Amino acid sequence: MAPAGCKPLVLKTEHLIRWLPQPPGWFKLNVDGVARRNPGLAGGGGVLRGHRGEWIKGIAANLATVHQSM
C-alpha cells in the first residue's frame, strides 16, 4: 500500500500495430468505437482500404447520448 499522499505506480505498455495488405481484389474494413460512462457520450468510425492500402471510404460519427428512465 502506498503512503498517504502518494499515487500508485502505473505501468504503461506500448503495442506496435501495423496494417497488413490484403490479396489483390480484396478490401479491408477497420472500425473502432469509444464510450464515456453508461449512459453517456459515444462515437465511432471506420476506414475502408483496398489491397494496396489506398483509402476508399471513411466515416466518423458522434452518437447521441442515451438517457435511461427509472
- Fraction in beta strands: 35-45%
Going across the biggest sheet, name each strand in turn.
1-2-3
| SSE ordering | EEE
Number of helices: 0
Helix content: under 10%
What's the layout of helices and strands?
Layout: E1 27-36, E2 41-50, E3 55-63
Antiparallel strand pairs: 1-2, 2-3
How would you describe the overall organization of this protein?
The protein is built from no helices and three strands. The radius of gyration is 20 Å and the shape is flat. The chain has a domain at 27-63. Strand 1 and strand 2 (41-50) form a beta hairpin. The mean pLDDT is 83. With 70 residues, the protein is mainly beta. It has a three-stranded antiparallel beta sheet with strand order 1-2-3, with no helix packed on it. The chain starts with 26 loop residues before the first strand and ends in a 7-residue tail after the last strand. It has strands spanning 27-36, 41-50, 55-63.
